Amino acid sequence: MSVDSCDDYSAIRAKAIAEGIKEVAAELRLINVADFISFIHSEQFGNIKDIVNSSMELYFKHGTLSYGCAADYELEWDRPPAIIIDMDFHHHQVAVSFNLLLCAYHAAVTIRSISFAEPSSSPEEDTLQLVAAIADAKLVAPAC
Predict the structure, then answer these.
(1) Mean pLDDT of the chain
(2) C-alpha dist (Å) from residue 12 to 8, 30, 34, 45, 64
(3) Cα 17 from Cα 107, distance rounded (Å)
(4) Cα(125)–Cα(9) distance, integer angstroms
């Protein structure tokens, strides 16, 4: 991985998170979008927290991925609805706050903040630390 700009590392890190949580995003897209919009509009954020928790519990170790206590929606006449959920990831001294954008057929991640308890002098090493933390936070699927 040889990337020069900070924006490139941000994109790589967002892609790593998106890839790491793709199963969770797929689970969340099983929820009726009207339910999400209703919960957000009526500020029933506890319901969203329950949905997020139940969607991630099969894929991540307890406490590593969580709802960040805020959500929003985009509802326009000229395009399909989208749900934006604030999420937090904490594992192996890596902490990331990010927005998860859920659309009908895809999801995207925008990092709001990222911190490393022991940052290296290289953004590349920090990115590898993030990737390793995500991999370690995931639950191993049982062999059939």
Answers:
(1) 92
(2) 6, 27, 32, 30, 20
(3) 11
(4) 11
- pTM for the model: 0.89
Phi then psi dihedrals of residue 11, to 5 deg: -65, -40
SS3 at position 66: strand
Distance CA 91, CA 62 (A): 10
Q: Would you mind telling me the total number of residues written for the chain in this entry? A: 144
d(CA 38, CA 57): 24
22 φ, ψ to 5°?
-60, -35
| CA–CA gap between residue 105 and residue 95 (Å, rounded) | 28
What digits encode the pLDDT tens for the residues 115-136?
999 988 999 999 999 999 999 9
Q: Between these two residues, 1 and 10, which has the higher pLDDT value?
A: 10
